[in-house]
Design a protein that fits this description.
The complex is a heterotetramer, with 2 copies of chain A and 2 copies of chain B. Chain A contains 9 helices and 11 strands. In chain A, a hairpin with a 2-residue loop joins strand 10 and strand 11. The radius of gyration of chain A is 17 Å and the shape is globular. Chain A has an 8-stranded mixed β-sheet, with helices on both faces. By secondary structure, chain B is mainly α. Chain B folds into 2 domains: about 80 residues, Dioxygenase LigAB, LigA subunit (Protocatechuate 4,5-dioxygenase, Chain A), CATH 1.10.700; about 30 residues. In chain B, helix 3 packs parallel to helix 8. The longest helix of chain B has 10 residues. Chain B is globular. Chain B starts with a helix and ends in an 8-residue tail after the last helix. The chains are: A alpha/beta, B mainly alpha. Chains in contact: A-B, A-C, A-D, B-C, C-D. The interface between C and D is large, with 44 and 55 residues. Strand 3 of chain A pairs antiparallel with strand 7 of chain C, so a sheet runs across the interface. The structure holds fe (iii) ion (2 copies). One fe (iii) ion binds next to loops of chain A. Chains B, D: Its EC number is 1.13.11.8. Chains B, D: Keywords: Dioxygenase, Oxidoreductase. Chains B, D: InterPro entries: LigA_sf, PCA_LigA, Xdiol_dOase_LigA.
Chain lengths: ~290, ~140, ~290, ~140
């Protein structure tokens, strides 16, 4: 039986991907941001070794333009090619999907009354590939591996055009994903990742907003058996963490999938990377 | 369930922020689709060769056209632009997110970067236009 | 305040559109199918006069291919062009949207935890245009009017790739659409239409299946205060009414939007039109 | 919630019917996308000029290719084809839905049309492969 063994959340800041791709991770500006991922990379390689990652992310006007805006879309393709976001694709491996499990989850979610969009062809942007760069590989220079060590099921959430799904709906989606994984007959070690956030605002006179206290309170809220984050309204993310801080609702899909209680394995917070606060947490479900 | 009118009213209450609502998405539809077209190298080449001629193919309002040509990003946000779409424009100009974003804050790139290294912009006094007005604190209002 | 004043359901058989377009509605084969719409056309023109129709339909491999399959998609565009389904577009007017109301409904539904896909550009196939042909126009020859007499908000439901949304989810979507319409400030007379069905199977050795009794029982179930149809499982539609009979789940969106109780205004059933049973019902909500 | 395994098992229990599940959608992905390409007049012209050459551009299995060329629609359903996609093929051949569908039933078009005018095919004995087997009634099984 497939099972969700861990949840990982991380910012997916494009500049982190650029630092990896240009070999700048050891520079003074970037080193503290990357340092917090060293524990995770060692754990992924030596201990966690997922077969599949369900990677919750958002597209940033890359695969989707304004013609069509799915609230929840699940990638069921054999593979997903890193997108050209306007300056050439990132020099990272093609992302291999897991169509068997992805279709199973998609169909389970629809029977469970989530109104999924099924995607069979999608290029994936930094929102999906930067978290892979932060988690995988073993050398201190954050060299990109020749192939990603596991399959990936992209789960795209609209957080660009308002309203995004409510926090409650995201959490409930995570719960339903966990039920779907549990009913997949093959024995698979599955992780779920939430990406995006933390504090950032990329637009307008208020750009550059960072709220270290709120972000850390959010990280606290993911640990243990509290479900208070489930009920945080959108307006609070926007006021407290900036207009793009709303991406954090995607972390709630991850949290919801871990069940009633979580245990903290690792945590990291750093300001700034480019315009953004870097946040990262690794959790496991408490059975 | 959520009162939709209250929900959207609150989104307009954040100082110095244009939340990308359906209303803005409608107004900015052709603007954002134009920007999206710059994801393709061929289109970027045509755009760079003659910006005004390139824009003629897109149903932009005169105001949007003017703001595009003058790279007035705050104005473009007012006219329905979304930052992830507008990013195709400033990337084509060779600007990073930090450089482009700083132009919206009235700060120099250097000052903006220094602010970020020092921990970023505080949320204090930046949470609510209404609350600022009530307390007589106008900082960042609108 | 906008309000839902009536619900209409109808088959959307492409052959009915062809009969209209070729002026064959009075031929012996077609006349009985069309006769049952005469009451409705007179009522629409003289009495009902909707400002907007929310038209629940499915795309038949026209606007959507297999790259992307939204469960629920709502059309927010200014207009929708009749699609070329392979033999030229139907010679019918462009369908004018109602972006104000459509965006309002889309946003309300997302806040109400329906995972809508928003569509800003879509050609519409016979699933949407045939019901317009059956409802609008006043002459006995079913001549297509120069313009449709109202705005249309397309609401596309996946009923092609299994699983479609459950009957319960469709009914609940209708209830949420009604709440959304009720919170729109402008005074608008809104109808909701469910389309597709009734019995038909277009594939395999069992093609041509028709189940008059089951279809009529389904029509019965839409009238009054029963919600038994809400719980009919997909397999029952398939076994009893053919593989394409599953389209009837779209009628439940219409029924759900009419509230606790409905009153019958008009009803029509005829076999066959091409491969299909023609079913049609007009209901109003009982306040 | 619904037991997904029971749900899909039941979908396979209907005589003479291939429900278009995710499993079939995967198997038929390129087949259906090929058929969809015939929505465009240019593609139809190329297809009609040389069917085999046109198919060479699409990742079909040999079995799919053979069934396409021989217009074996039941076989195409077995190989992941969906009827709304396959319709692009038979429409291009100038066949109506009634004509194309009748080829899957083993009936002549005339007999099929006569059956429809007489009220269509009855559901009796056509509901369940399992039930038919249990009752010794093999009519239409599989
Ligand atoms: Fe992001
Ligand atoms: Fe249909």
């Amino acid at each position: 039986m497939a099972r969700i063994t861990a949840g990982v959340a991380t910012s997916h800041i494009p500049a982190l991907g650029v630092a990896v791709d240009l070999g700048k991770t050891a520079e003074a500006y970037w080193a503290p941001a990357f340092a917090g991922y060293e524990w995770t990379r060692a754990w992924q390689a030596a201990e966690a070794k997922p077969d599949v990652v369900i990677l919750v992310f958002n597209d940033h006007a890359t695969a989707f333009d304004m013609k069509l805006i799915p609230t929840f879309a699940i990638g069921c393709a054999e593979r997903f090619v890193p997108a050209d976001e306007g300056w050439g694709p990132r020099p990272v491996p093609v992302v291999e999907g897991h169509p068997d499990l992805a279709w199973h989850i998609a169909q389970s979610l629809i029977l469970d009354e989530f109104d999924m969009t099924i995607i069979n062809d999608m290029d994936v942007d930094h929102g999906l590939t930067v978290p892979l760069s932060m988690n995988f590989g073993t050398d201190a220079a954050f060299t990109t591996p020749a192939a990603w060590p596991c399959k990936v099921i992209p789960l795209a959430v609209n957080v660009v055009t308002f309203p995004p799904p409510t926090g409650n709906r995201c959490w409930a989606l995570g719960e339903a994903v966990a039920r779907a994984v549990a009913s997949f007959p093959e024995d698979l070690n599955v992780q779920i990742w939430g990406t995006g956030g933390m504090s950032h605002q990329l637009q307008g006179p208020r750009a550059g907003l960072i709220n270290r206290d709120w972000d850390n309170g959010f990280l606290d809220g993911l640990i243990g058996d509290s479900d208070r984050l489930r009920h945080v309204p959108h307006i609070e993310y926007l006021r407290e963490t900036g207009s793009e801080g709303i991406e954090m609702v995607m972390w709630l899909v991850m949290r919801g999938a871990l069940g009633r209680e979580t245990r903290l394995l690792h945590r990291h917070y750093h300001v700034p990377a480019s315009n953004t606060a870097v946040g990262h947490i690794v959790l496991e479900p408490v059975a | 369930m959520t009162d939709i009118h209250a929900y959207f009213a609150e989104l307009e209450d954040i100082p110095g922020t244009r939340v990308y609502t359906g209303k803005r998405a409608r107004e900015g539809y052709h603007l954002n689709q134009f920007a999206m077209s710059l994801m393709k190298a061929d289109n970027r080449a045509r755009w760079k060769a003659d910006e005004a001629a390139y824009l003629a193919d897109w149903h932009l309002t005169d105001e949007q056209r003017k703001a595009v040509l003058s790279r007035d990003y705050n104005r473009l946000l007012d006219l329905g632009g979304n930052i992830y779409f507008l990013a195709k424009m400033f990337s084509t100009d060779g600007l990073s997110f930090v450089q482009a974003v700083s132009t919206m804050t009235g700060m120099s790139v250097e000052d903006y970067q220094a602010m970020m290294v020092a921990g970023g912009r505080s949320a204090v006094g930046q949470r609510s236009i209404r609350a600022n007005a009530a307390s007589g604190d106008n900082k960042g209002a609108n």
